[in-house]
Amino acid sequence: MGVLVVWQTLDEVRVEAAGCTRCRLAAGRTQVVWMDGDPESDLMFVGEAPGMNEDKLGRPFVGAAGKLLDQLLESIALDRSKCVICNVIKCRPPSNRNPEPDEIATCSPYLKAQIDFIKPAVIVTLGNFATRYILDRQLSITRVRGQIFRAFGAKVIPTLHPAAALHSGGVGSPQFALIRSDFDLISSELAKGRPAPPAPAPALPAPAAEAFVSQESLF
Ligand code: SF4
Q1: What DSSP designation does 92 have?
Q2: How buried is 81 (Cβ within 10 angstroms: 0-12 exposed, 13-18 middle, 19+ buried)?
Q3: What residue's CA is closest to ligand 1, atom 8?
Q4: Cα of 166 to ligand 1 centre, how many Å?
Q5: pTM of the entire structure?
Q6: Domain count of the chain?
């Protein structure tokens, strides 16, 4: 972001984001789309960027893809009030184009702050962009969906973006069936709670005297 900002509360971050003009997407937005749901929740969904409806209403996932997400949540006895829903990018890219790498880099401190303050036990990444940002690798969502990773102190479960199911025929599509099965995994991992902290790295064995001598002879 170019400036070191130390936010004390999630609301401070929200207020700052609401007036943000740090990247070119500020010029075309109606409003910043911050997040939806309960910041006390253990479950966070991260999508890509707001679309037209989200930009208009100021809430993430309120269009057709959002309705599918609501349906998927209902299938595991949840709703928006029991999770957090947000995006990597907080302003709508023009014509719903993909976010550019520099836009992601500029906007991502807001998402990072959301994760830091909310501390979800389970982060569900919806689609390629969220998965790549959260796992910090150029992964393909079709290869990694339905698996459990670990990042930001949370279990990370990538799944397809609901828009992928919409574009393939909606609830009757194979894509929807894949997302639906991933939601069963989300539900069971949520029930298990927060991941255990990583075990400390094992101490390196002391080098044998003989090996140490022979290494020294290399220099
Ligand atoms: S997309 Fe993010 S960085 Fe760019 S103007 Fe919006 S809030 Fe700021």
Answers
A1: P
A2: exposed
A3: 20
A4: 27
A5: 0.88
A6: 1
